Amino acid sequence: MSALIPDGTASILLGHMQGVADVNRQRVADLEKQGDWAGLAKFAEDNIAKDAFSAEWRVVAGYARSQLRDYPQAMAHFSELVRMAPDDATGYHFLAETQRAAGQPERAVTTLERALLVVRESSVTFRMLGDANSDAARYVPAVTAYRRALAIDPADAEAWFGLGRASLRLARNTDAREALRALEQMRSPRAAELRAMIAG
Protein backbone atom coordinates (compact mmCIF):
# COMPACT_ATOMS: atom_id res chain seq x y z
CA MET A 1 0.00 0.00 0.00
CA SER A 2 3.04 2.25 0.21
CA ALA A 3 2.36 3.74 -3.22
CA LEU A 4 -0.95 5.08 -1.97
CA ILE A 5 -0.62 5.51 1.77
CA PRO A 6 2.87 6.28 3.07
CA ASP A 7 3.98 5.92 6.68
CA GLY A 8 1.98 8.17 8.98
CA THR A 9 -1.34 7.28 7.44
CA ALA A 10 -3.96 8.91 9.64
CA SER A 11 -4.19 12.08 7.56
CA ILE A 12 -4.58 10.07 4.34
CA LEU A 13 -7.18 7.75 5.83
CA LEU A 14 -9.09 10.68 7.30
CA GLY A 15 -9.00 12.39 3.93
CA HIS A 16 -11.32 9.63 2.72
CA MET A 17 -13.71 10.16 5.65
CA GLN A 18 -15.34 13.55 5.12
CA GLY A 19 -18.77 12.05 5.77
CA VAL A 20 -17.79 10.43 9.08
CA ALA A 21 -18.53 11.89 12.52
CA ASP A 22 -15.61 13.65 14.22
CA VAL A 23 -15.63 11.22 17.16
CA ASN A 24 -15.18 8.30 14.74
CA ARG A 25 -12.47 10.12 12.81
CA GLN A 26 -10.58 10.64 16.08
CA ARG A 27 -10.96 6.95 16.94
CA VAL A 28 -9.49 6.01 13.55
CA ALA A 29 -6.56 8.39 14.13
CA ASP A 30 -5.93 6.94 17.62
CA LEU A 31 -6.02 3.31 16.47
CA GLU A 32 -3.77 4.08 13.50
CA LYS A 33 -1.28 5.90 15.73
CA GLN A 34 -1.19 2.92 18.10
CA GLY A 35 -0.70 0.51 15.18
CA ASP A 36 -3.74 -1.41 16.42
CA TRP A 37 -4.68 -2.79 13.00
CA ALA A 38 -6.93 -5.52 14.41
CA GLY A 39 -8.80 -2.93 16.45
CA LEU A 40 -9.04 -0.61 13.46
CA ALA A 41 -10.33 -3.42 11.23
CA LYS A 42 -12.98 -4.35 13.79
CA PHE A 43 -14.00 -0.71 14.29
CA ALA A 44 -14.36 -0.17 10.55
CA GLU A 45 -16.19 -3.46 10.00
CA ASP A 46 -18.59 -2.68 12.86
CA ASN A 47 -19.39 0.57 11.06
CA ILE A 48 -19.81 -1.25 7.73
CA ALA A 49 -22.35 -3.49 9.48
CA LYS A 50 -24.33 -0.32 10.27
CA ASP A 51 -23.86 1.22 6.81
CA ALA A 52 -22.97 -1.33 4.14
CA PHE A 53 -22.72 1.39 1.48
CA SER A 54 -20.05 3.48 3.22
CA ALA A 55 -17.06 3.89 0.91
CA GLU A 56 -15.12 5.60 3.72
CA TRP A 57 -15.30 2.61 6.03
CA ARG A 58 -14.38 0.25 3.16
CA VAL A 59 -11.12 2.18 2.68
CA VAL A 60 -10.29 2.03 6.39
CA ALA A 61 -11.23 -1.65 6.73
CA GLY A 62 -9.31 -2.62 3.61
CA TYR A 63 -6.25 -0.70 4.72
CA ALA A 64 -6.31 -2.21 8.22
CA ARG A 65 -6.73 -5.71 6.80
CA SER A 66 -3.81 -5.15 4.43
CA GLN A 67 -1.64 -4.10 7.39
CA LEU A 68 -2.58 -7.39 9.04
CA ARG A 69 -1.59 -9.14 5.78
CA ASP A 70 -5.14 -10.45 5.59
CA TYR A 71 -5.11 -9.84 1.85
CA PRO A 72 -8.26 -11.80 0.95
CA GLN A 73 -10.36 -9.66 3.32
CA ALA A 74 -8.62 -6.47 2.21
CA MET A 75 -9.32 -7.33 -1.42
CA ALA A 76 -12.95 -8.06 -0.57
CA HIS A 77 -13.34 -4.57 0.93
CA PHE A 78 -11.62 -2.85 -2.00
CA SER A 79 -13.55 -4.91 -4.56
CA GLU A 80 -16.74 -3.72 -2.91
CA LEU A 81 -15.40 -0.16 -3.08
CA VAL A 82 -14.92 -0.59 -6.85
CA ARG A 83 -18.44 -2.01 -7.16
CA MET A 84 -19.94 0.93 -5.25
CA ALA A 85 -17.97 3.60 -7.14
CA PRO A 86 -16.97 2.15 -10.53
CA ASP A 87 -16.16 5.59 -11.96
CA ASP A 88 -13.65 6.45 -9.21
CA ALA A 89 -10.06 5.25 -9.58
CA THR A 90 -9.50 5.11 -5.81
CA GLY A 91 -10.95 1.64 -5.31
CA TYR A 92 -9.04 0.23 -8.27
CA HIS A 93 -5.79 1.68 -6.94
CA PHE A 94 -6.25 0.23 -3.46
CA LEU A 95 -7.32 -3.12 -4.88
CA ALA A 96 -4.33 -3.29 -7.23
CA GLU A 97 -1.85 -2.41 -4.47
CA THR A 98 -3.32 -5.15 -2.29
CA GLN A 99 -3.11 -7.65 -5.14
CA ARG A 100 0.56 -6.76 -5.63
CA ALA A 101 1.24 -7.11 -1.90
CA ALA A 102 -0.42 -10.54 -2.02
CA GLY A 103 1.94 -11.62 -4.81
CA GLN A 104 -0.71 -11.42 -7.54
CA PRO A 105 0.74 -8.85 -9.98
CA GLU A 106 -1.15 -10.26 -12.97
CA ARG A 107 -4.44 -9.57 -11.20
CA ALA A 108 -3.19 -6.07 -10.37
CA VAL A 109 -2.46 -5.49 -14.07
CA THR A 110 -6.03 -6.47 -14.94
CA THR A 111 -7.44 -4.21 -12.20
CA LEU A 112 -5.40 -1.22 -13.39
CA GLU A 113 -6.33 -1.79 -17.02
CA ARG A 114 -9.95 -1.63 -15.89
CA ALA A 115 -9.18 1.60 -14.02
CA LEU A 116 -7.81 3.12 -17.22
CA LEU A 117 -11.20 2.64 -18.84
CA VAL A 118 -12.47 5.04 -16.16
CA VAL A 119 -9.59 7.52 -15.89
CA ARG A 120 -7.78 7.52 -19.21
CA GLU A 121 -5.13 10.14 -18.37
CA SER A 122 -4.02 9.24 -14.85
CA SER A 123 -0.26 9.31 -14.30
CA VAL A 124 -0.70 7.45 -11.01
CA THR A 125 -2.65 4.63 -12.68
CA PHE A 126 -0.08 4.28 -15.46
CA ARG A 127 2.78 4.28 -12.93
CA MET A 128 1.05 1.63 -10.87
CA LEU A 129 0.48 -0.39 -14.06
CA GLY A 130 4.21 -0.16 -14.75
CA ASP A 131 4.95 -1.40 -11.22
CA ALA A 132 2.53 -4.31 -11.53
CA ASN A 133 3.95 -5.33 -14.91
CA SER A 134 7.47 -5.11 -13.45
CA ASP A 135 6.42 -7.36 -10.56
CA ALA A 136 5.21 -9.86 -13.16
CA ALA A 137 8.54 -9.59 -15.06
CA ARG A 138 6.69 -8.06 -18.03
CA TYR A 139 9.23 -5.33 -18.64
CA VAL A 140 8.22 -4.20 -22.14
CA PRO A 141 4.65 -3.28 -21.11
CA ALA A 142 6.09 -1.87 -17.88
CA VAL A 143 8.28 0.55 -19.86
CA THR A 144 5.30 1.53 -22.00
CA ALA A 145 3.21 2.24 -18.89
CA TYR A 146 5.96 4.29 -17.23
CA ARG A 147 6.39 6.33 -20.43
CA ARG A 148 2.64 7.02 -20.47
CA ALA A 149 2.80 8.14 -16.82
CA LEU A 150 5.71 10.46 -17.57
CA ALA A 151 3.99 11.95 -20.61
CA ILE A 152 1.27 13.11 -18.20
CA ASP A 153 3.53 13.99 -15.25
CA PRO A 154 7.20 14.42 -16.17
CA ALA A 155 8.04 15.11 -12.50
CA ASP A 156 6.92 11.67 -11.25
CA ALA A 157 10.14 10.42 -9.66
CA GLU A 158 8.72 6.98 -8.97
CA ALA A 159 7.81 6.55 -12.64
CA TRP A 160 11.35 7.58 -13.66
CA PHE A 161 12.80 5.10 -11.19
CA GLY A 162 10.50 2.34 -12.45
CA LEU A 163 11.42 3.17 -16.04
CA GLY A 164 15.12 2.99 -15.23
CA ARG A 165 14.82 -0.31 -13.40
CA ALA A 166 12.67 -1.93 -16.11
CA SER A 167 15.00 -0.60 -18.83
CA LEU A 168 17.97 -2.25 -17.11
CA ARG A 169 16.11 -5.56 -17.14
CA LEU A 170 15.76 -5.16 -20.90
CA ALA A 171 19.43 -4.11 -21.27
CA ARG A 172 18.27 -0.70 -22.51
CA ASN A 173 21.11 1.15 -20.79
CA THR A 174 20.53 4.41 -22.66
CA ASP A 175 16.96 4.59 -21.32
CA ALA A 176 18.18 3.73 -17.81
CA ARG A 177 20.72 6.57 -17.95
CA GLU A 178 17.98 8.93 -19.18
CA ALA A 179 15.93 8.01 -16.11
CA LEU A 180 18.96 8.53 -13.86
CA ARG A 181 19.57 12.02 -15.31
CA ALA A 182 15.93 12.94 -14.68
CA LEU A 183 16.12 11.72 -11.07
CA GLU A 184 19.36 13.60 -10.51
CA GLN A 185 17.86 16.81 -11.89
CA MET A 186 14.94 16.37 -9.48
CA ARG A 187 17.39 15.64 -6.64
CA SER A 188 15.36 12.51 -5.90
CA PRO A 189 16.71 10.05 -3.31
CA ARG A 190 15.86 7.38 -5.89
CA ALA A 191 18.78 8.59 -8.03
CA ALA A 192 21.36 6.93 -5.77
CA GLU A 193 19.43 3.67 -5.84
CA LEU A 194 19.20 3.63 -9.64
CA ARG A 195 22.84 4.70 -10.00
CA ALA A 196 23.86 1.67 -7.91
CA MET A 197 21.77 -0.62 -10.12
CA ILE A 198 23.38 0.76 -13.27
CA ALA A 199 26.85 0.40 -11.77
CA GLY A 200 26.18 -3.09 -10.49
> Alpha-carbon distance between the termini?
28 Å
Strand content: under 5%
| Overall pLDDT metric | 90
Q: Structural class, from secondary structure content? A: mainly alpha
Can you tell me the residue ranges where pLDDT is under 50 for at least 5 consecutive residues? Answer: 1-8
Please write the string of helix (H) and strand (E) elements: HHHHHHHHHHHH
What is the 3D form?
elongated
Radius of gyration, taken over Cα atoms and rounded to an integer in Å:
18 Å
Biggest sheet statistics: none
Number of strands: 0
> What is the helical fraction, as a range of percent?
over 70%
Separate helix tally? 12
Description:
The protein is mainly alpha-helical and 200 residues long. It has helices at 10-15, 22-34, 37-50, 55-67, 71-84, 89-101, 105-118, 123-135, 139-152, 157-169, 173-185, 190-199. α2 packs antiparallel against α3, α4 (55-67) runs parallel beside α6 (89-101) and α10 packs antiparallel against α11. The longest helix is centred in the first third of the chain and has 14 residues, at 37-50. It is elongated and about 55 Å long.
Please outline what is shown here:
The protein is an all-alpha fold and 200 residues long.
Helix/strand layout:
Elements: H1 10-15, H2 22-34, H3 37-50, H4 55-67, H5 71-84, H6 89-101, H7 105-118, H8 123-135, H9 139-152, H10 157-169, H11 173-185, H12 190-199
Helix pairs in contact: 2-3, 3-4, 4-5, 4-6, 5-6, 6-7, 6-8, 7-8, 8-9, 8-10, 9-10, 10-11, 10-12, 11-12
